[in-house]
Amino acid sequence: MRLVEMEIARQDWKSMLCGCGGSAEHLARDLLQLAGGGSRQEPIDLSLEEHAWSPVVLWEPAPAVTSVALAALADDVALAAREWFLDLLHFMVAGEGTDEESARRGLDLPELCQGLALQGLWLLYEEVMSNRSLGAAGAAFEILTVLEPDRARLQRVREIAADWLPVCCRTGLCDDDLPVLDR
Ligand SMILES: [Zn+2]
Ligand SMILES: [Zn+2]
Fold it and tell me: What separation in Å is there between the alpha carbon of 163 and the centre of ligand 1?
């Protein structure tokens, strides 16, 4: 069993309320299918919008999805799937609200997801530095701009990776923390 499959199997999806209103069990199937996608290179046409996240809130499965995305990065998944998991992780750490039901139970989903993702800090730096693709390096860097408490380290990596990072990351346009004058 691979790392990402282990992490999917470990989560209690059935007891989680999905954003679509049903049980989150179908997310386990979706994630498993992606993680096992072999070496296919075409872009993946599956979104967890309205299931794990929306532009307004994160839903109950979001922390579990965050852990699975990190396990996928640590695993040997195909490049298209890596990029998909990085984009997914980006949505998880950029979430700004918690769905009503989870909030009533005292959960702060954005905080939980960011805390989990921070444990994968060096995985994200590895993703930036290994430059597997423009999309993967850029997505990993943008996740770091949300998470990294050590802004000096982030800035150092921004300089080192300048040759292959997307323009927005290189110039800091996508980094809300950077004063406009420094851009
Ligand atoms: Zn759903
Ligand atoms: Zn960027």
Answer: 39
Could you tell me the pLDDT band of residue 179, with boundaries at 50, 70 and 90?
A: low
Q: What domain count does the chain have? A: 2
Q: Are residues 174 and 141 in the same domain?
A: yes
Rg (CA), the chain: 16
CA of 182 to the centre of ligand 2 (A): 15
Two structure tokens written together for 8: 């999917």
List the Cα angle 144/82/89 in 5-degree steps: 40
Instruction: Report which DSSP code applies to 49.
Output: B
- Is the pTM higher than 0.90? The answer reads yes
User: What's the pLDDT tens digit per position in 104-113?
Assistant: 999 999 999 9
3-state secondary structure of 23: strand
Tokens of 169: 């990351």
Task: Compute, in angstroms, the gap from residue 127 CA to the centroid of ligand 2.
Answer: 14
Structural domain of 115 = 1-119
Question: DSSP secondary-structure letter at 17?
Answer: B
